[in-house]
Amino acid sequence: MTSHTHPPSPTEDEAQSHHVDEREGRSMTDSLRILVTGAAGLVGAEVTARLAAAGHRVTALVHRNPALVRNDGTPLETGAVTCLSGDVTKPRLGLPEATYRELAAGGLDRIVHCAAITDFGLPDEIYQAVNVDGTAHVIELARAGGIPLVHVGTAYVCGERDGSIAETELDEGQRLANAYEDSKFRAETLVHKAQGDGVRAAIVRPSIVVGDERTGVVRDYKNIYVVLRLTTEGRVRSLPGQYEARLDLVPVDYVADVITEVTHRFEEAAGRTFHAVGAPLTLRDFSDVLAEYPPFQVPRFVPATSFDVARLPRRERSYHERVITLYESYFRRRMSFDDAHTAGFTTRRAPGNAQDFLRVLIDHCLESGYLGRSPADVTEAPDRPDAPGPGATSAGNGAGPAGSVRNGAGR
Amino acid sequence: MILSEDYLQNLWDKTLAHVPSAANCAVVLEGSIAEGFGNSSSDIDFLLIADSDADLPTMPSLLFLDGRRVEVRTRSVRQVAEQFSALTSATHGDPGTIPEDLLNRCQRLLGSFPLRHPDLVAKVKGLMSFDDFRSTAREWWAHHARQSLRYALVLRELGQEAEAAAWTEAGLLQAVKSWAAGRGETYLEPKWLPMQLDRLGADPLSARFRVLASLDGSGLDPAAYVTAGALLSADLGVAGAASGSEHLTVARADGVTTWQTGDRVHVVRGRQDVFVLGDQAARAWRALVFGRPLGAVLSAAQASGAPQAGRLIAQFLRFGLVKAAWKGEGPIVPALPLAAPPGAVTPPPSAARPIVAVGGAAVGGAEAIDLVPVPARRFSAAGMTLVWSNVLVENAREDLVGALDREQWSVAQLSARRMLRFALRGVLSAYGVNPLPPDSEVVRALSLLPAEAHTEEMRAEARCLETLTIASVAEGGAAVKRLDRFVAQVRHATGAYSFPSSFDSSDGWRQTLELGYDWLRLGAHLDADLPIDEASDLLSSGGAQPHVATT
């Protein structure tokens, strides 16, 4: 087994940041005042940790959960970050007027907008409130204070387009697969409009955010992990999909690094969009890797035209209706995300071999006990698709492709 | 040495007559005799060293002189220097990666006896420090000992005590070779170990080794022998193989994948060999969670309905389907240096016939781990074709019945012939025939099948059915009955008697499609040829047949 070690400590991050900036010929000794929305989320917490470690004065906007926990489970030192209780769905981000006024009146050098609802299958109004209205409220603050904005979107604003997706493309008349994608598309459209009105912004679009590139460690077993568990345990045996379809899994640490670097070097990033994506993985690659694990059932991928939910066994049908339908679209898309902007901008190397990375993720799931339960345990498990494994810190019944950027500044 | 220098000089003079280009080379005697061992049947191994940068051939010359086998190798000074340099580089990494031949060549030169140009010999020997070399040899043997002893612990945990004791014997020998190498006795060949130990003089450790050198001589039972072996090895300086199971686990064997069709579990090794597992073997296999303690894996396997899980998992290890591992230090790779190269065992192919059934490969019993006697791609292509042949039999039968309803006699006759041929495609596929002959040849192609297939009756009936005429309701009805009987006979013979009749019910059709997708999944992994075009049509037709009943 691969031995697992912890990600670099903040001190190492800091050292790296200094190194990077020295190469850029800039000094990182200038401490920036940065507001991070969604700072309790998976990506938000990692970005906050990196910015704080680099010596910036970070204000973390959190909704319900004031505890900031990094991806590896270690809490963020409270002294490093100022936590503000707020709500992006409300005007002035739900902050007291004085606080808001202070932020808008020259109190910030950057806003990093990570807050979003990424769970699937929720009522439309929640996506509207958090993802669209929330972004509008953040834009208002950016506009009011003339504050540079780093907006975290999703690569899946491409909707159901096939082929290569450029970072420069947004509205190509595509069909959006669900309310989540639709809301993120509209949020990004708002950012573009605001840019036209003089708001300075850069956009980072992660794909499906999963565990650490090197260790596979992930704080929350959500979104794709739930599908992975249901299929490998044989609770879902057939998936409507095509072997040629591509999933794009991106390590959380890579996404956080890209966002952090865009924030640091905003002057160069302004007005641009960056795909923070992994190497594409076809469902056939996915199937081949699953087959390497003796306990795993490998799902059948059935062409959508041949797939009939009504013919599934009762229990599988229930899982299908509650979980799999939320992801169906991802099992038939054949897009690939062009990340030329990111490759030309960031100093971190893009994630490599997608099959190897999937192995790292699965090996960690086995180590933590999230996957690899004995058939007897699976049978005895409660009939809930989102039942967490022994090592799971939380589980939802699905999350959008940007995975765990869902956070406390939402709902 | 058992031979005098004069004798050797004289022998070299005789040898020189056969290798004239060696006139200006330095010459050494290397091997067992040079080391002070050997006997009357030992070979004479001369190494010629040319003071040049030349690229001299590696293959030795073989001569028979004075009743002895004489082997002459050649190396230039540059080649010797490169050899030592390669060893030094390899020493900085994992000692287990040092090639045995490289270590052996370096050792033999360092331990050689000079016969010509001793100055040049001393110069090349000076390219490597003997102290460094013996330290490398000690680490190399220790590495192998550790692997053997760990593997013995794995086998003991799995209840394979006799084999565990055999690997402990191997590990102990390697451990004592490591200990001896550290004391300067670096000659690799294990058969001279007793003389090496004698030369090192009395020592409590070598005395303990002599007692434990073999299970039989030790007077211990195999399990106790494994424990005693681990203890002595630790005292001999081989750390990291302490008795106890907490470090033992299982790990991925590269290129091994698991594919289930229906309820049958197949394990594909290196995209080439297919092992089919009986029910209990499959349960044991499914319990192999990488990284989990071996004891927990074993308990889970037993609890899942594989009481003989230890024996089965040991067999998976031998066949290279999974690896044993030492937690935190990766796979355990047991090997016997200077013996057969390590690697997976391949059992003889299964004799179960027919080879492929609709639900997967034929299997010899609940605990079977059978090697399917055809390569993976052909197996998968034959399996897919078998399933689709059966589907197409159903399809052709529907056409036949429809044509009879309308009294379309020639259409009915063609449909009857299609039904026959599809059934026979299934028979041929069940015996691993792939690709299939053209449809017009399938009746004659039954002659390809082995005698034990007992196809005489089937062939006779097929020949009659192929020339069947249908020109009336009565003939049509008789043809349907005869063909149904034939299909039932064929399905029984090919293990497809449980094949779901796709037109009986929607459930039957769903099962058919699922089996088809199971086979396609394996086929996609292996890039196998997809069966007949109709199969893809059926897969993409929305899962519903035009004639399918909706009950």
Per-chain topology:
The complex is a heterodimer of chains A (411) and B (551).
Chain A: H1 10-23, E1 33-37, H2 42-53, E2 57-62, E3 81-85, H3 97-107, E4 110-113, H4 124-145, E5 149-152, E6 163-165, H5 179-196, E7 201-206, E8 208-210, H6 224-232, E9 238-240, E10 246-251, H7 252-264, H8 266-269, E11 273-276, E12 280-282, H9 283-290, E13 300-302, H10 314-327, E14 335-337, H11 340-345, H12 354-368, H13 375-380
Parallel strand pairs in A: 1-2, 1-4, 2-3, 4-5, 5-7, 6-14, 7-11, 8-10, 9-13
Antiparallel strand pairs in A: 10-12
Helix pairs in contact in A: 1-2, 2-7, 3-4, 4-5, 9-12
Chain B: H1 5-16, E1 26-30, E2 44-50, E3 61-65, E4 68-76, H2 77-91, H3 100-110, E5 113-116, H4 118-125, H5 130-157, H6 161-182, H7 193-200, H8 204-212, H9 215-218, H10 222-235, E6 248-251, E7 256-261, E8 264-269, E9 273-277, H11 279-286, H12 294-303, H13 309-318, E10 323-326, E11 356-357, E12 360-361, E13 369-371, H14 376-405, H15 409-430, H16 442-445, H17 456-466, H18 473-493, H19 506-526, H20 533-539
Parallel strand pairs in B: 2-4
Antiparallel strand pairs in B: 1-2, 1-5, 3-4, 6-10, 7-8, 8-9, 9-13, 11-12
Helix pairs in contact in B: 2-3, 5-6, 5-10, 6-10, 8-10, 11-12, 11-13, 14-15, 14-18, 14-19, 15-18, 17-18
Characterise the protein shown here.
The complex is a heterodimer of chains A (411) and B (551). Chain A is an alpha/beta fold and 411 residues long. Chain A has one domain (10-405): NAD(P)-binding Rossmann-like Domain (Rossmann fold, 3-Layer(aba) Sandwich), CATH 3.40.50. Chain A is built from 13 helices and 14 strands. In chain A, helix 1 packs across helix 2 (42-53) and helix 4 runs parallel beside helix 5 (179-196). The longest helix of chain A has 22 residues, at 124-145. Chain A is globular, with a radius of gyration of 20 Å. Mean pLDDT of chain A is 85; it is low at 1-28 and 380-411. Helix content of chain B is 50%, strand content 11%. Chain B has four domains: 5-128, 2-Layer Sandwich (Beta Polymerase, domain 2), CATH 3.30.460.10; 137-235; 250-371, no CATH class; 376-539. Chain B is α+β, with helices and mostly antiparallel strands and 551 residues long. In chain B, 48% of the residues are buried. Chain B contains 20 helices and 13 strands. Residues 541-551 of chain B have low confidence and may be disordered. Chain B has a five-stranded mixed β-sheet with strand order 3-4-2-1-5. In chain B, a hairpin with a 3-residue loop joins strand 8 (264-269) and strand 9 (273-277). The interface between A and B is large, with 32 and 40 residues.
